[in-house]
Amino acid sequence: MSRFPRFEPPPRVVDASLLGAVVLLLATGAVSLVSGRPAAAWVFDVHAVAGLATVVLLAWKLRRVRHRLRPGDLDATRLLSVLLGVVATAALATGIWWVFGGNLDLGPWGLLNLHIGLGLVVPVLLLLHLRQRFALPTRESATDRRNALRYAALVGSGAVAWQAQEVANRVLDTAGAERRFTGSRERGSDSGNGFPVTSWVADDPDPVDREAWSLTVDGRVGEPLDLSYGDVTTEDDPTSTVDPAERRALLDCTSEWYSEHDWRGVSVGDLLDAADPEDGAAWVQFRSVTGYRWSLPVEEAGDALLATHVDGERLSHGHGAPIRLVAPGRRGFQWVKWVESVRVTRRRGLGEWIAVFVSWYDD
Ligand SMILES: Nc1nc2c(c(=O)[nH]1)N[C@H]1C(S)=C(S)[C@@H](COP(=O)(O)O)O[C@H]1N2
Ligand SMILES: [Mo]
């Protein structure tokens, strides 16, 4: 029998809760990857508290089913269940380890990427597992008041543990203490080009020739523009037609780190003013020489910068020379590097989501 008979809900309620927890973790995990504004901090908190509650649910579940694991009768169904148990445990462990300052060197990836990867495998294995073993909780157990209380206790202890973690990290002064609310840790702020270079998937273009390069601004505009490097920077050409714009902004990648810098370049708002968007223009798409692209709503784009310099240094090739998007408040993957085209549109191309995963350079 269970050692905590009063807290542990009936088996099917535990199972249904695990399903609910995985859905919630997947949803909040996905949203957390694209959120970088403090107003979204609650999403990260829900993810953490749900993760901690899942530790308890999974412990109950594993204790209940472990007797089924006799080496003699491991069929495919059971092997899948074992795999699910292992991957789910690893996903929870890597998440907690990251919070406490853990590190792992997996070439271009790190511990947080491993956590994300494992977290994406769990729902797939769970779906397969459910095809074999799905059963609804009985009506009585679903409406039992004691179960509601057990839930409150479970979520409450998750929340308390999450708070305690903050204190523990600070007292023990771990690397986990310097996390931003997104989970990212600080790297190379105010050091010019000396912060990590991260490219997503396979984007690895040859250095872009400044002299041959030009920036077009077109689409739904009255006055399309075609600008040379001299046009977008005052560095070489004091008679440049655009005013330099400067902005302090924080780049928060989804692979573990963030970095804050003073960026200098040309204001997208100024470019748009010059290009004169038509009525109905709603999106501005920034496109890289690699085909990688991202759109911002037109009002927000007006507040963004196309940067040629970081902390007074010319951008290095790795950071997107000759020009890269600085989109304050947006996660790093939206800060398009090696930009060559700014296109004003009415609708957002759905292809962007695909290009983010499959763009590559071919010349
Ligand atoms: N064209 C292009 N732009 C890109 C990427 C990319 O792979 N290709 N990676 C993005 C990601 S995931 C991040 S975090 C930032 C990283 O910028 P950095 O390499 O200057 O640090 O660039 C973004 N811009
Ligand atoms: Mo990133």
TrEMBL record:
Residues 182-201 are annotated as: Disordered. InterPro entries: OxRdtase_Mopterin-bd_dom, OxRdtase_Mopterin-bd_sf. Residues 207-351 form the Oxidoreductase molybdopterin-binding domain. The chain crosses the membrane at residues 12-33, 39-60, 80-100, 112-130. Keywords: Membrane, Transmembrane, Transmembrane helix. Pfam families: Oxidored_molyb. It comes from the Archaea. This is Molybdopterin-dependent oxidoreductase. It comes from Halosimplex pelagicum.
